[in-house]
Every structure is written in structure tokens, then in C-alpha cells.
Amino acid sequence: MEITKPNAWETLVLCDDYWHPVRVPREGLSGLEKEGFSFDWIEDSREWSAKRMANYPLVILTKSDNVSSADQSSWMTEEVQSAFVEYVRKGNGLLAIHSGTAGYQEKTILRSLLGGVFTHHPDQCMVTLEAHTNHELTTNIPAFTVKDEHYFMAMDDPQVDVFMTTCSEHGTQPAGWRRTEGNGRVAVLTPGHNLEVWLHPSYQALLLNTLRWCGGIA
Fold first, then answer.
1. Which of 96, 101, 204, 215 is the most buried (most CB within 10 A)?
2. What distance in Å separates the CA atoms of residue 181 and residue 97, rounded to the nearest whole number?
């Protein structure tokens, strides 16, 4: 039977790992449905395939290198990493959120695609998210402070376009950036361990803007 390709607003979400339950992105993204987005979900990476992913113009990666919350085995093989690169280069969009950068320090192909990955975080603390002024993705998005994991990042691509930083008592880190790969677009948002972050109006605006940019949606 022929598979019908989803429309430009439909997004595949890869989520759920040992430390990051599926309910957080499910609730955190639900508010974007009124903006015209719909979401299909993969919680167990054994359900993923390059062929299935190719049916979507947008993918959200908010899953660390665990098969599922019940299986901490690695799933991001070199073959899978290469499939993500090919997917983006063909003109599709990828948004990595929070745990979508975690557990991938040794995954060099994915690291290069994302432009940077998570290395560590201190205990949860009050973190201030500061959007850069005069950036097209962050216009009129005010700074806000919430309790979260303050992700510290290893940045691999010095040319990434950073549009947001996070600050806490532990220092300042890049927290939102974008880059292009071939004909496609990649963006990263590092905050988001707690649902409170996802549901904050400023973060909802960031999610919407970055998704639209990744998908080339006006």
C-alpha cells in the first residue's frame, strides 16, 4: 500500500529515555497544535527507520542515546547517524531539544550535524534563559528564569548561529543555535528537563519559531 506523505506541518518526534519521560515533550508540544503542527511519536527507537523518517519534513530529536526508557542500550549507530545527515542534506529540518543532545559525545557524525552536544550538568538550579536581541528567531521573546538542568555543551562548529544563552550560578552556556547542512536546517534548544520550561510562554515562542525555521515555514 502506498504511504501518503504528511503535509509540511507534520513532525516526527523521537523521545523517551531513562532520564526523560515521554510525557514532558508530549505535553510541552501540545500547545503548538493550534499553530497548525501535528506530531507523530516514536518512543522505542526500534520503531525508527530511515525510510519512515523520510516521510516527514521535520524531525524533533528529544531522546538521549537510549533505545527506550526501559532499555538503556545505545541506538545511535554510525548507520543511524549517517541517515540523519542524509535526511537533513536533502532539505529536511531537524530540531534537537534537551536530551536530544545527551549521550552523544562519542557519536562524531551526529555531533558534527548538531554543531555541539551535552557534556554535563550540575544539580538542578535556577536557570535564566536569555534570547539574543534583534535575532529573527527571538524577536520580542523576554528572558525568564526557571528551575532546570543547566546543560553544559561541547561546541564543535564555531560558525553556528547562537540565538540564546543560559545563565546560572555555574556560568553561561550557549543554549539555542542553528546551522545549515546541505539543503537542510538544524536547530538546537538545550533547556527542557522540566515541563515548566516547555510550557513557559517564552519557550513556547522559541519552539514555534525554531520549528518554523527548520521547516522553512513562513
1. 96
2. 18
